[in-house]
Amino acid sequence: MELQPKVSVIIPAYNVGAFISECIESAINQTYPNLEIIIIDDGSVDDTPIICDHYADMDKRILVKHQPNGGLSAARNEGLKLACGDYLFFLDSDDYLESDAIEYLVNLSQKYDADICAGSAIQVTENKQFVKEMSFPGISSEYQLCYEHSFWQYAYANTPCIPAIVVWTKLYKKRLFANLSFKENFIHEDEEILHKVVSISDTIILSVKNIYNYRLRSDSVMDKPMTIKNLCKADFLSQRLNYFIQKEYTDLYLSCFGDGAYVLRKAYSTDAYKNDTAFKLEVNRLYKEYKKHLNYIYSVIPSKKLFIQKTIFNLNLGLYNYISQKL
């Protein structure tokens, strides 16, 4: 009997005592048995370490590593170093899986020799009340095979499609991360790494089956007031746009530009832009980059509408923000 490939489930955990048990149990109770569950306790000061160690004592598939706090990327990178599986799956410690998630994705990958298999997700509240489905628009069947360019076309079909642009809905062949790691000491790390992973992938599968439950927390870092750290999203999207330009994915230029420009528009409207010199300087640096991007896009795909957009954007970020809000 052929052995099932092993899947390394990497769970970075920091002060999630209220949620970590459900997360771990969703991994333990997968219908697919050949797992190693790697939990990186990233310097938690609540009862997270005790809970993680308790589950490790109960299930030999669980490995817990305690380390000083270094952030989400550092925890994921430590998980990558420890992973021995044929596949990788990233599970955030406040989220939880459907019971057949891993089995479903492994079967798809094995059937089509896919490098990445992505499922859809359900967004829930802290107490697990349904908020909305997060799936792939434009897919008429249960799943769709695609490749590098078509993956990004689906990703930006809904500007952008959440399950496509995050790392946590996907099963990856481990080899994809052989020379890649998450950028540490930043947030929005998914935007920085995902295009690098996709660029070295062959077959990719996108499925409308819900396999992941994403918990929307009231204390999420994404919902806090904007700081200079948040500006790295515009920086990472600028890198993605350069990648699209290198690949000549002209149909994706404006969608990616729009995502990055939205971050700058939002930043311009904050008190930090008025009161924080370093924040303002970084916004202005990125604004110059995005002006160059838009000028290049216009040179490749000129239109009257784009000419007006380019003119307003180049003239003044504040004016562009004002007009964008009115449209």
Offer a concise description of the structure.
This protein has 327 residues and is an alpha/beta fold. The protein is 46% helix and 19% strand.
Could you characterize what this model shows?
There is one protein chain. The protein is of the alpha/beta class. The protein has two domains: 7-221, Spore Coat Polysaccharide Biosynthesis Protein SpsA, Chain A (Alpha-Beta Complex); 225-326, no CATH class. It contains 13 helices and ten strands. The protein has helices at residues 20-28, 48-58, 72-82, 101-112, 148-155, 162-165, 189-199, 232-247, 253-268, 271-275, 277-300, 304-315, 317-326, and strands at 7-13, 35-42, 62-67, 87-90, 96-97, 116-124, 130-134, 143-146, 170-173, 204-215. Strands 1, 2, 3, 4, 5, 6, 7, 8, 9 and 10 form a ten-stranded mixed beta sheet that branches. Helix 2 (48-58) links the parallel strand 2 and strand 3. It is globular and about 60 Å long. It starts with 6 loop residues before the first strand and ends with a helix.
